[in-house]
């Protein structure tokens, strides 16, 4: 009978345990290989990475239907996320409708025939880069002003959308001249390149709101006025005596050369430098912008008949050239932002 020492027995037991552990590890590895799925999900991966001969010999294991459902869920989540990002971006980058407000007060001192104007403050100003604070000042002008002396300008207020000006101006004029005058205030900003841009304007007819020795305060919203200047009578009137004109603007939308829609402004009677603040909306899909043209005509409305004579016109669109095309391109690269430019009228 064979007798083993304690050390020998311990060595045999340890060896058996090690062999058992090794067998278990090998079985686990083999089972994991059998259940492991291929890295690709469909045959498109194989067709793009292998040649025609090898791709035909490889068998593709189809995944169950839940894979398509997951991809649809993922696509829906992605579209929802993109929509939220686009909404947030448009809300942040679209220019606000309001340009801000301005507070000022006036009093006409009848005894010394002087109009006292005080620019108090502006608030909620929106500059060209409308998320930044701005350097602003206010221009003051009274019209009519044949001598060019009824004007002024405040100091520049730095880095604020709510500047406190607190500056006063005195204009010597008779009561009758005051009642026939129009006060024009314009708020300007200075950008980092020292360029000056108008933020908004206010116009007040003094004869309608101001009386002698009565102080009046105003809190008005700034507006953007679209203007025309240096308008002349139509060609048919050039050989006759000088006449006042009654201009209005007509806008025609052309699609592939065909008239689709037309709109026009109100008429400014006997005004060679009319001011317009009228908005026209035209619904044009972005993918069709290259096929449209806008014909903008300035016409003189005859007071003694229903007809009108064209003073001049401008055509704007992708098919134009020169300043018209430059203005169109600036509009395309500046979505949701108004782009203004002067154009020379042509017949």
Automatic annotation (TrEMBL):
Q: Which PANTHER family match?
A: SYNAPTOTAGMIN (PTHR10024), SYNAPTOTAGMIN 1 (PTHR10024:SF227)
Q: What would be an example GO MF term here?
A: clathrin binding
Q: Which Pfam families match?
A: C2
Q: What is the source species? A: Pocillopora damicornis (Cauliflower coral)
What GO CC terms are in its UniProt record? exocytic vesicle; plasma membrane; presynapse
Q: What is this protein called?
A: C2 domain-containing protein
What keywords are assigned to this protein? Membrane, Repeat, Transmembrane, Transmembrane helix
Q: Which domain of life is it from?
A: Eukaryota
- Show where the C2 domain sits: 98-220
